[in-house]
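In the previous lecture we treated proteins in isolation. Real proteins rarely work alone, and many bind small molecules. This record shows how such a complex is specified: first the sequence, then the SMILES for pyridoxal-5'-phosphate.
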Amino acid sequence: MVFTNGAPLESQMEEMRDPADWRHYQTLAHRMVDDLVADMDALRQGPVWQPMPDAVRHYFLSDALPAPAALDAVYQDYLRLIAPYASGNRHPGFMGWAQGAGLPAGVLAELLMAGLNMNCGGRDHVGIALERQIAIWVRGWFGFPETSEGLFTTGASQANFIACLAARSVALGEAVRRRGIGAARLCAYASSGAHGCLDRAMDMAGLGAEALRRIPTDGAHRLDLVALAQQIAADRRSGLQPFMLIGTAGSVDVGAFDDLSALAEIAHQEGLWFHVDGAFGAQCIHSERERHRLAGLNQADSLAFDFHKWGQVPYDAGFLLVRQKSQLLQTFSSEAAYLTREPDGLAAGEVWPTDLGPDLSRACRALKTWMVLRHTGREAIAANVDLSIGLARHLVRRIEQTPELELLAYADLNIVCFRYRTAQPDRLNRAIVRQLHLEGKVAPSTTKIRGEIAIRAAFFNPRSNESDIENLVLGVRRLGAELEGTTP
Ligand SMILES: *Cc1c(COP(=O)(O)O)cnc(C)c1O
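The predicted 3D structure, ligand included, written as tokens:
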């Protein structure tokens, strides 16, 4: 590196080194932890979310990196410019999309993880052993065999994509990695309620998003089995090569579970890779009451899910479980001189995570997951799954008691879609949700049910309770009445 300002290299390097005064660093570290604990403790008193003022937005559009400053000063900027404007999913009033809140145990785990700063792409160290440990637990929960292997990913989107690549290499053989898909016309199947990341997975796998055939759902929002059989037959007749069937365990809009046993059987008969997207719904495995929804999942070739939604591990922590480790190796392993394995030493270990997925450098997501799981146990996850479903059922009852409100979809899980009744419901209900966000007490999101806008409340957060539901119901009623006159 060349420094043009004439300062000696030595003084430029000073800031890259360990602190000159560890005592000072320690004081600051304690203050950060104290502030953060106080902040978490007072979470409910603050807004779910608040918009960044213009000054803050502008601050983050500056062209130049500010001059180096003491860590204390940078921390003051964090407190002023960043902490107040976070995404809100920690807050008990957050009920939008499908997000986890994160647990205090995970906060400390993140700190420890950064302290060790392990690169979990490979080599022989405890970060790799931790990831294996989680994979062994996970395969036990879901009834997968010992041949299976698991891998942390950023999220379920990436896990679904990796599963798609594995299914592709099994369908077309290993040569697809060198030659591409050529003239092959692969196609896959998922319900119309399946997550949009699946279309993107097909696109990114070079198959084109239209390779995902969207099958209509039945009255319970489940993939319609008759329509599926018809589509597979029609596709075969027109020369396509069906290769993958994707079941959804907990759909993002309404929380519906496809009939996984039936899908497993169809996949088996048709010779298709059977994948399950259980992004949040897979956590039902921990609940004695809800586990039945996942019947048939143990026959899947692969499962994608997140620890960062209903599992409450801090972002990000997605996971992919594949029935045959060899299929992941066939999809990803490659030779590189700089990654040569040795019988012992730090370069030991036959299979590294980089042989099983697309990443080389990887964070140790296993540590925070291990700490949260060790601390809460499966029982607490189960209790929160049951609690979230209980809150959703309570909201359904409140909607039914409130004449101004109309239930649009409920699949008996943790997600409720409803709206304020009015002549022009789409505009008004979108306006209600925007205003709720600005008021900062509760933050639901919106979706479309049968083409019409719904207010969507999804419960994942163990901090939420019935008072948050009351705030939602009262807020929607009040804003519905207020905005009705003003929204054209
Ligand atoms: C959230 C979600 C995804 C995407 O998961 P990310 O972790 O956000 O990548 C996929 N499928 C379903 C059903 C989801 O709810």
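Summary for your notes: The chain has a mean pLDDT of 95. The first strand starts at residue 94 and ends at 95.
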